Amino acid sequence: MSSNLRNAKQEFLDITKNYKVIAANIKFDTEDFRNELKLKPLYTKEEFEKFLIFLDQNYDSGYGGQELYGTIFCENGVWMQRGEYDGSEWWNTFRYPNMRDTFDEVDVLKYERNRKLKQINNI
Which structural domain range is residue 75 located in? Predict the structure, then answer.
């Protein structure tokens, strides 16, 4: 067994264990259209279970060609995207920067209030 052999389901569960998953789009590199599955926002328990069954596949994360693609969207501005270099694969985790680290609190509150008013008024 290759030391680079990974199970996509276990990897997904490991990297998302500290996050609330909103949605995901995962694809295995094949010509079969059934090898792509989207976990849409507001998914049901049954849809999540179906997604995990789909992910329960082994792939080689070592050098060669990329075999797994995807993006996972989580709450609190976190998302994960598949990285690859020369066929070696991994997940990158990103987080939107917090505006409060850059701008005055008053500016941030003005923006948030304006955004909420637009949502209420359907602008």
Answer: 5-96
